[in-house]
Structure of HTH merR-type domain-containing protein:
Amino acid sequence: MATDWANRNEAGDLSGKRVAIVGKLAGMTRREVFTALRKADATPSEKVDQRVDVIVFGENDLSSLGDQGVTVELQDKAAAGDLKFISETTLWQWLGLIEPHQKLHRLYTPAMLSDLLGVSKSIIRRWHRRGLIVPARQVRSLPYFDYREVATAKQLAAMLASGLSPDRIERQLSAISEYLPDVQRPLVQLSVMVEGRDILLRQGEGLVEPGGQMRFDFDRDDDFSDVFNIVDPGSDEPETAEQWDTRAADYEDDEQLEEAIRCLRSSLTIGGASAERSFRLAELLYRAGHFDGAVERYHTAIELDPDMIEARANLGCVLAETGQLVEAVSALRDAIEVYDGYCDAHYHLARTLDELGRQREATSHWQKCLELNPDSPWADEAYARLNPEED
């Protein structure tokens, strides 16, 4: 009987089984996983006792069996084949949420990546917009990036730290893709390195150019443009909204924020109302210190796209920063109402409520931060706020 259960369960059959969760889950809250288990005709168990058939270990908690409350009797039951110990990843596979052998990793929002890498959110969004990092999933208008894209973003951040501008990085990666048409994402598909101000392909023991030549002097910008047929988007006066967008991005990269703002206003004039452009303009206005204008543009973006969660959350942040705390709470609650799984909004709402002296209300949002992403850059702060006696 025990052997039959073990064999059937290798295929992920949870029907009729009693399942307990121990440790911290990385992918879902307990409520969410219990719902998924019930849909699979399994019975979630709040207790780890002799009645359970499967014990799932959360990937954020690697404590020993004893520390998890798994008794010697339960370990004996597992040894006899009457109980199954599985990882969180295996559970997701059995529930059909991920493909077999696909690893489950944390997902990062643009704000989390920004904090993790020490680069601005505008740069993260630019990388996303240009296809340099690709979200594993997108909830409404909010992208989430998995560990592979985090690794790519780390490469890009290292290139920035080495002195390469965002524009130069994109031009050189574009040149690689131009000369190797099957390569759309060089950082993912190839072994590359930065030498000085250049991105080079690593081949064997040598470094070669995209076209197969040995080391080429990319430092001569004119030669680089001629050889790789790179068109400078700012060489002609923009005529379309998209060209004005590109010009705005170039000015933004050079920290010429007022010029970038002017270009985006031109883009909106030509292209008409756009939630995305209004959002980008709001971000630029905020960075340039035009807070009232930023608030106005965030409102515009939300009116055009009520599901734009990041616009709602950023509106709340600007309102909080300018001392409009009650209004900030309202904006952040609206963001959470659109998507309750937005860790960033819970974090900023918790901080704002704390600042208002409403610690009891803030507690649930600090807890939600830890539930949604126990590895986020804000996890330590959330834990400290929930456990002030340990300070």
